[in-house]
């Protein structure tokens, strides 16, 4: 009752304020409109006193607007009052600022309205359940412990996920070493000493000479130790039950110890040296920095103490390399989950490396658990359910809230217990533990590299141990100073081109804007998507055409940004709108000289897996002889050997006791089973190797014949298609199938196709005209190698000859020929029986 009365009081006060100020605001708008309708400039020019008075009022209005602007920017993270200021006698710029401010504020209103309705949606649920449930702890009746108990009751949490705003001072600006994102050399490990070394630091930090695939680089300085140090002996055996680790129950567990000074770090090193196992996790931020920023480190020890280490502390950051004393000690197991990026962040930002890593992700893979996330392992092994909402929190914020500290602590609090339980499960499967440990070694051996020095074909298996944490533009002169035109898969903007279907003529503009965005991100130490989202970049590319630079101005560019700002960040591009506009305009002028024919030619020679890795290249007929086309089938021994490899592998899947040997089909494997065919009504037939060999021999013999002759080749009934086409053409050529083929046998005659049609769907022409190699190559490639399904062939209609119709009444009358009886087409509804070839 009291809350209702308070709401009524607040409401009445609001109504009074509106009633008081609404008429004043209404009159102000009316007077402003009336004054604006007059030609003020004219009166100012003829009367100095009016001019002075108008300019004085104008300055007052500008000051008032700037105060309002300062007030409005405090409620939005996307606006900064220092970057937006109204100025006297700048009508165009002031209108643009007003438009931007209103867009951002209205977007903020829309978001808040959505949140309001979501809150009201669960309000009744909360009130109803609050009468039945009292949540006094994190323990819920379903047997699970919850980090956020509201997630189990479908109630909205009162905790708001904090995010940094545009006015937040970036932590990297306080670091003792300033950030420089314009790399002039490969990434050099930032360690100055190497504890637990087998290979000396001097030998580990030598520059490796470049190869065709891998540029100049430094190796992972602990690569030798990671791959060769032995794990402690106890990990290969079962741990007695009385020595296995049990976590402290979550409810009532002590808070994590905060480490942010060198003195506290020294105390931590003493504790870590006492451990056999430690658990590690990281929180990372990559939105307001170019390469990314390790923002928090969590460590839990087997002495059951949780620690939170602050790598953003300027005085602590430079001392964190001393943790290598523990992290590279092979006798201390380091447990992480999904460490494939953690090892990169550790070495890139802090100079830390991991020896004797145990990755629970790879352990879960060996155990075939089906799900491999940390959240699943927590539920499966310790009955704990974490919260997902803090994954999107800004971990640069200081101080961290209690809720954020709890979430961070939960990532490692139970990880050691999970390790011991998974360790026992792995020992029950032969070699599973060894495989998990080897996979963990390979993860720890990964190394970070700058985009400029990234290896070619980075996705290939030989180079997948190298990671670049940004899709930055390589700072090579041939790339930064020129339009490349050749869009291969190693260029960072290629994926953006093909994923958005950018037309050929617009691709150079996308390349220019991509490079501009990358340069801005490097200069300001921001992520590329903070500078300008992919959606806005692609929208700008699609909005302007080469040769129409006159259509580009601040208003047109801003209209595109405003229209698409809700799909990504736009604060920075609004801030530097003039520079961006000039960049687009200059690019459109410069790109007038781009030879699109050359671009088309280069594009035609791209490897098709850039756009679709599963796309097969089509056969080009220009300059290809018949010997080139059939070179792969002329070498019979090679063909048989390749076929036998697959044949033996296939037989192994049927008979597991049969060993695999590389044999020719002529050997003892000749009578083996190649495949089992299941027909209708449960009929089963066996395809033997000798029948497959016979088919191959017939194909090879077929291509060894004189191509000027008619060649007959027997095939299965199900391979026969378009019978109606054959019959129609037999009328034209005078050939009757019944006269050529013996009873109950089908003979397929290869005929010359029209030279201007290479599509496999075109109908067959005359049987005695196979003289050109191109037609034959296409017929073979399309009709045999890429045979179409039966249902598609049946759906095709025969092509009719447009120039001459022998059945037309006009033609018959002119030639004095009686009416011909047109032969009926084959009725597909009837059953047609073909003789199958003997297998």
Automatic annotation (TrEMBL):
Statement: the UniProt record of this protein carries the keyword rRNA processing: yes
Xref: SMART domains: 35EXOc
Residue ranges with Basic and acidic residues bias: 784-793
Residue runs in coiled coils: 577-616
GO MF entry, a single one: 3'-5'-RNA exonuclease activity
Main location: nucleus
Subcellular location: Nucleus
One GO cellular component term: nucleolus
One Gene Ontology term from the biological process aspect of the record: nuclear polyadenylation-dependent snoRNA catabolic process
Residue stretches making up the HRDC domain: 503-587
Gene3D superfamilies xref list: HRDC domain, Ribonuclease H-like superfamily/Ribonuclease H
A matching Pfam family: HRDC
Location of the region described as Disordered in the Swiss-Prot/TrEMBL record: 780-839
Keywords recorded for this protein, A-Z: Coiled coil, Exosome, Nucleus, rRNA processing
Similarity comment text for this entry: Belongs to the exosome component 10/RRP6 family.
Protein name: Exosome nuclease subunit
């Amino acid at each position: 009752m009291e809350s209702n009365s308070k709401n009524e009081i607040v409401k009445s006060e609001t109504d009074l304020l509106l009633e008081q100020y609404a008429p004043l605001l209404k009159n102000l708008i009316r007077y402003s409109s009336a004054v604006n309708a007059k030609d003020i400039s004219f009166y100012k020019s003829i009367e100095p006193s009016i001019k002075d008075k108008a300019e004085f009022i104008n300055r007052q209005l500008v000051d008032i607007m700037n105060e309002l602007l300062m007030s409005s920017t405090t409620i939005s993270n996307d606006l900064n009052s220092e970057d937006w200021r109204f100025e006297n006698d700048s009508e165009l710029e002031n209108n643009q600022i007003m438009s931007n401010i209103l867009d951002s504020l209205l977007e903020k209103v829309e978001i808040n309205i959505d949140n309001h309705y979501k809150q009201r949606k669960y309000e009744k649920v909360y009130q109803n359940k609050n009468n039945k449930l009292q949540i006094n702890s994190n323990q819920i009746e379903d047997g699970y412990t919850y980090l956020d108990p509201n997630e189990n009751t479908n109630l909205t949490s009162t905790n708001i996920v904090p995010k940094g705003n545009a006015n937040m001072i970036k932590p990297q600006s306080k670091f003792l070493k300033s950030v420089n994102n314009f790399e002039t050399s490969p990434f050099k490990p930032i360690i100055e000493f190497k504890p637990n070394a087998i290979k000396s630091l001097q030998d580990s930090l030598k520059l490796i000479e470049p190869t065709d695939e891998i540029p100049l680089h430094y190796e992972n300085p602990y690569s030798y130790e990671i791959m060769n140090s032995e794990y402690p002996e106890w990990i290969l055996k079962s741990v007695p039950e009385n020595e296995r680790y049990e976590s402290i129950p979550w409810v009532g567990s002590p808070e994590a110890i905060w480490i942010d000074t060198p003195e506290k770090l020294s105390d931590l090193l003493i504790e870590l040296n006492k451990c056999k196992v430690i658990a590690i996790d990281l929180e990372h931020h990559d939105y307001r920095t170019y390469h990314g920023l390790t923002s928090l480190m969590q460590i839990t020890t087997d002495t059951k103490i949780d620690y939170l280490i602050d790598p953003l502390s300027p005085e602590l950051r430079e001392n964190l390399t001393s943790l290598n004393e523990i992290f590279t000690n092979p006798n201390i197991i380091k447990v992480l989950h999904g460490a494939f990026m953690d090892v990169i962040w550790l070495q890139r930002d802090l100079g830390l490396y991991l020896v004797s890593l145990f990755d629970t992700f790879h352990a879960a893979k060996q155990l075939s658990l089906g799900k491999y996330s940390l959240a699943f392992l927590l539920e499966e092994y310790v009955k704990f359910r974490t919260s997902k909402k803090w994954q999107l929190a800004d971990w640069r914020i200081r101080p961290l809230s209690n809720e954020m500290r709890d979430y961070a602590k939960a990532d490692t609090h139970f990880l050691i217990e999970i390790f011991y339980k998974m360790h026992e499960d792995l020992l029950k499967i032969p070699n599973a533990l060894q495989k998990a440990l080897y996979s963990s070694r390979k993860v720890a051996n990964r190394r970070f590299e700058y985009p400029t020095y990234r290896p070619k074909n980075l996705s290939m298996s030989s180079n997948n141990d190298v990671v670049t944490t940004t899709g930055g533009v390589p700072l090579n002169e041939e790339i930064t100073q020129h339009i490349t035109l050749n869009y291969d898969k190693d260029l960072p903007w290629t994926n953006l081109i093909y994923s958005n279907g950018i037309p050929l003529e617009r691709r150079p503009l996308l390349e220019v804007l991509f490079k501009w965005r990358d340069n801005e991100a490097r200069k300001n130490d921001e992520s590329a998507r903070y500078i300008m989202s992919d959606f806005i970049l692609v929208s700008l590319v699609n909005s302007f055409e080469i040769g129409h630079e006159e259509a580009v101005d601040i208003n047109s560019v801003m209209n595109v940004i405003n229209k698409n700002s809700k799909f990504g960040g736009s604060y920075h591009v609004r801030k530097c709108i003039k520079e961006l506009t000039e960049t687009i305009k200059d690019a459109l002028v410069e790109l007038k000289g781009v030879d699109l024919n050359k671009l088309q030619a280069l594009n035609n020679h791209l490897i098709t897996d850039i756009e679709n890795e599963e796309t097969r290249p089509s056969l080009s007929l220009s300059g290809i002889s018949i010997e080139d086309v059939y070179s792969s089938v002329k070498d019979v021994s090679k063909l048989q050997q390749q076929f036998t490899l697959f044949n033996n592998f296939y037989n192994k899947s049927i008979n597991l006791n049969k060993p695999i040997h590389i044999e020719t089909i002529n050997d003892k494997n000749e009578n083996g089973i190649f495949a089992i065919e299941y027909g209708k009504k449960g009929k089963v037939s066996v395809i033997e190797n000798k029948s497959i060999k016979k088919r191959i021999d017939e194909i090879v013999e077929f291509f060894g014949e004189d191509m000027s002759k008619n060649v007959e080749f027997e095939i299965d009934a199900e391979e026969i298609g378009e019978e109606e086409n054959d019959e129609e053409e037999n009328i034209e050529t005078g050939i009757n199938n019944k006269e050529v083929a013996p009873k109950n046998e089908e003979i397929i005659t290869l005929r010359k196709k029209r030279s201007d049609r290479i599509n496999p769907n075109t109908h067959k022409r005359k049987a005695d005209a196979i003289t050109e190699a191109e037609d034959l190559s296409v017929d073979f490639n399309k009709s045999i190698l890429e045979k179409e399904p039966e249902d598609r062939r049946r759906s095709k209609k025969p092509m009719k000859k447009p120039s001459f119709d022998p059945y037309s009444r006009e033609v018959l009358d002119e030639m004095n020929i009686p009416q011909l009886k047109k032969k009926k087409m084959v009725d597909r509804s009837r059953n047609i029986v073909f003789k199958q070839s003997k297998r």
